Every structure is written in structure tokens, then in C-alpha cells.
Fold each of these.
Amino acid sequence: MTEQLREHVARQLERSRARSTQLTDAVDEHDLVRQHSKLMSPLVWDLAHIGNQEELWLVRDVGGREPVRQDIDEYYDAFKFSRSKRPELPLLGPKETRQYVGDVRGKVFDVLEKVPLEGRRLVENAFAFGMIVQHEQQHDETMLATHQLRVGDPVLQAPPPPAGNAVLTTEVLVPAGSFEMGTSTEPWALDNERPAHPVHVKAFHIDTAPVTNAEYAEFIAAGGYDREEFWSAEGWMHRLHSKLRAPRFWQREGSGWARTVFGVTEALVPNEPVVHVCFFEAEAYAKWAGKRLPTEAEWEKAARHDPATGRSRRYPWGDEDPTPQHANLGQRHLRPAPVGAYPAGVSPLGVHQLIGDVWEWTASDFHGYPGFEVFPYPEYSKVFFGSDYKVLRGGSFGTDEAAVRSTFRNWDYPIRRQIFAGFRCARDAF
Ligand SMILES: [Fe+2]
């Protein structure tokens, strides 16, 4: 059992490193060290930060080994310097960074071979290794967002996602009742997903699929960006201040729209979920459509609740890990898949594409669940609890399967658009 777990960890570590290497080898040294947007770190910072977190947790803490490079800790501490300040720090160069992350990884494989995976909560079920795998995959998604912001010739390639299919209903009714939200058993679930607890949810309707580009274009054509009545007070202020007119990366082309995807400008694909909208835009669209955003509990119930058994599943399709037939994850494709592309991933109630494609904005602020306990450190999620952040669910085409579950919670500021975020709507059932 332990041997199987160690092999599983090793495979996951290798998968995440292959992705980090692909994302950083795809560009030249100049593009590695420069800042492509004030919102993002230089790619070389993300890579060294991945190595530094791995060193702190797995080499020094779990392994009890000597530091590899204690002198650089502060430059790669995400809480010490904001993203906009990072380019001015005495960061490791590309060659040094690659050497550093490789040295750390070598020690980690040695620790993985020797450390007992018991006796401490941090190592039970190889949790600390799982946390570091997820951390690297999360930064890989961040680096993918940096690639989308980068200006220049395209450097990333991937096959197109599967074709869409007609989705027969526009909405699904989720009946009233209690369901189990969160988890106490998923071994690599992070502190904010715990513990499992019952939540009563009133009956509601939820969109069968995420809102598409064509639907979003109708909102724009209906004057959605000029009609204050659809926006919250805060949302309208932001809409005016930031001069929002359309999702990020959209531009007018004749009477329609084009958008730029990883350096390629193309006509908008009508039945693809809209991406790169902020929370305020999602909220305004929903109001225009006579609906609202789902709460986090509603989203999770739609994704996990199995009315036949009354239990909550790990994923909409069941308990088995995602396969390429279930969901558009892991940067296998460089875009969300059209609506109806994943019939095998549908939830028991008939809701499509909850996992993968686009992160989905919810109406909920980010808070700890009843009985929340910090583990293993408050900076993972506790310091973000409060009304500043909105919760996003489900992962995007750029999220790895190791870094998303139906219980997984992401959070961001309601103005953010560089992330791969879209949404679906809900409404009360009367
Ligand atoms: Fe980080």
C-alpha cells in the first residue's frame, strides 16, 4: 500500500514538473524574466517559487534535511513582495532557477523513498506531497494565464477540444433538501474543503451548461454594459472606472467579435463557454437574463448530489478520477470545449461541464466551513477569508486533475479577468 502510494506520488510529481518545464521551455530567456502583465509574476519567478515551496515543505520540514538555498527564501515568499514588485528583486536567472528546482527535486525523491508516511498528520496519505503537487499545478495554471497575456508569436500548441452536442434542456431543477458539502475523507483535500457538513438548499434551477460566447454577445448587443440597472453598485463603479465593454481579449470585428487565444486572433466560437469575465460582469449578465449566480452550496449540490443514493460524489460522474472523456482539464486543449462536448461528465441531475472548461464564479464570499481548522498553515486559505474574495468552482481547461475536485474551492477578487473564469446562472424555483 505504502509502495503504491509512493509510486503514485512520484508519478504526480513528474507530471507536474513536465508541465512546468513545457511552460517555461516554450519561451526564450527574455520572455522568462520579463513581466508580461502587472498582474503576474515573471515566469522564472513562478518556477523558482515552485521549487522553494517544495524545498520548505518536503526537503526541510518533512525530510528534516539541510536547506538547499535558504538565502533566497524571502524573494520567493508570495506574502513578502507583491507580484508587481517581483521583477525588481535579485531573482535567480533562468539557468540558476532550472538548476535549483532540479536540485530540490532530486532531494525530494530521496525523501519520498525514505520518510515514513505515518506518525504525523502532515505525511499521512502523503498529504504534504499532494499539497506540493497541487501547488505546482496551480502555478502552472497561473503561468498559462501569463502565456495568454504575453504578446508575441504563438508558442503553445494543442489539439482542439471535442465538438459540442446539443444540450436538450437549458436548465435543471435541483430539488430542495440537505446534502453533504465539503469532505472529511478526500486524502489530498485542502483545509478550506473540510470538514464534510450537511447543508440544506432550497429548490433552485441551474443552467445545464456554462453561459456561451453567443449568449454573452447578446447581453452586449442588448446594451448590457450601458445599463446600470443590471449591475451592482460596486460592479457599476468598476465597469465605469475600468471602461469594461466586453470580456478581456475580445475585439470588434465588423459587426461581430474576434478574440485572441494564446497569440492567435480568431472569430469567436459561438457555442464555447465565455471566458475572461470578472465576477461583476457575470453578475450583470445573470440579472439581465432574469437569473442570478448560484451560491457555492448550490453549485456543489448540482455537482455532487446523487438523488438515488442521497450521497455526495467526488465528481459529477461518480467517484472515479477524471479521464479525457469526462472533462476538459490539464491544458490538453488550450480553450474551453463547446457546450455538450462531455456527455460522460454529466451529473446525476443532468448538469454538464461542471468540472473543467472554465472556472465558474459563484455568488459566495470565501469563508471557512463550520468546524474549519487551519492545516497546515494559515496562509493557505484562512488569511483570505472574508468579503474581499468570491469563490470560483470546478476548474478550467488549464487546471490539472490533481488540483480540482467537486469540493475544490478557488477564490479571487471580483474584478479579476486574467483567470480562465466564466459562469453559469441559477434562479429560485417557486
Ligand atoms: Fe504559491
Note: Residues 2-25 form the longest helix (24 residues).
Amino acid sequence: MKFGTALISILVVGLLACVSSAYAVTSPYVIEKQHALEETEWTDSFSIEQFDPSWGTLYRIEIFLEARTTGFAGWENKSTSRGATVTVDFESKVSADAPSWTTISKIMTDGPVMDVLTTYDGVTDYDGDSGGTRNYDSGIVSAAPLVINDGDAGWGAIAAAYTGPGTVNMPVYTTSDANLNAVGGNVLAEFRQESYAKVTVQYHFRPVPEPASLAACLLGLAGMGAFAVRKRR
Ligand SMILES: [Ca+2]
Ligand SMILES: [Ca+2]
């Protein structure tokens, strides 16, 4: 390969590096973690990748929590001499403890619903005149996001906690305060609730070109210079 051809190759590769891949990581950098719908109460710990300072200058962190709760309640009055009144309500809370920051939570509720029951209808099926059911699904709902910007109170400690080469642990957990209340009769009841959680962390930053891309870029510019010098001779 001639010297000139080699230089042109370096030039092309270098310039391509300059325009196409100067930023390997783009802002915002997004991390998503989730816990599948599971019977409450559960606890988990999400491993959140930290912001790598070589990507650029971090200026905002945002944390989003999405949650969902589904519930089922079934009841049957087994008394053959007395009717009953059943009242059902669901309440569940999904929370995530953001490291060095605060807790982000979402509460989901349903009801109360009331059902007036006769004496036992002879079939234990959570149905008929002496039984009933309630199915609840909150759908995906969002908590108010956590947002902090460079310059806000507490930024230093929070930014430090989320910056580094490793991960931070974010405890995620659910609590359930649902109730099924029966007045009168002899009510058999079944009750369950499941919750889902998803956390999204976004790092917003002003990027700097990656050292490797920068090196290729500079090599390209150097090659262009050398090529120009050689042509002039
Ligand atoms: Ca029944
Ligand atoms: Ca009924």
C-alpha cells in the first residue's frame, strides 16, 4: 500500500469516528428493573447501575415508579339461620427506597363494595344469593417521579451515591392493608392480592467524546494534515 493510500484510509476511518461514534452512551441513560406480579407482601432489591463519569457531566437524575395491583375476594355465608353483610376494600402500596434520597411510593385502592347475603344457598361457590366475588385490577399506575437537578439542595450527596463504576441497591417492597368485613351469618372468605413494580432510573448528562473515538478522530485529523503537507511537496 502506498503511503498516500494508507493516509487516505486513516483519514476516512478517523473522520467516520469523528461524526458517527463520538458518543457511545447517549443522554439520558435509562435503566429499567421490574418485579413480576406476585402475591403480596414481597420484598426485593433492584441493582441499579451507577452513572459512569467518563460518559460526561451528570446534571439530572430522575426515578420513575410504575405499579400494579390485582386482587380477588370471594365470600359465602354458610349460616342456615342468619343473613350477612360483607364489605370489601383493597389497599396496597408499592415502594422503592432510592439510595441516599427518599422513598417513592404508589398506593392503589378499590372499594369499599358491599354485598348483602341470604342464608346459605347450599353451594360453596362464592356465588348465588349467599355468596359473591370481587376482582380488582388497578392497571399500570405511576407514582410522582423523583427529580433532582445539579444545584438543587441535596444534589451533592445524591449525585455521589449514583456515580461510580458499580451499582447501588434499591429496596423495593409491597404492603397490603386490604379488608373483608362480615357482619352476621357465618361467612367463609378467601382473599388474595398481587403486586407488580417497575423502576426506571434516568441519568441526564452533557456527554464528552469517548477517549477511543477521540483518539481515532485526532488520528484522522493528523492524517489529513500529513496528507496535505505531503501533497504540497
Ligand atoms: Ca353459593
Ligand atoms: Ca351473590
Note: DSSP finds three helices and eleven strands in the chain.
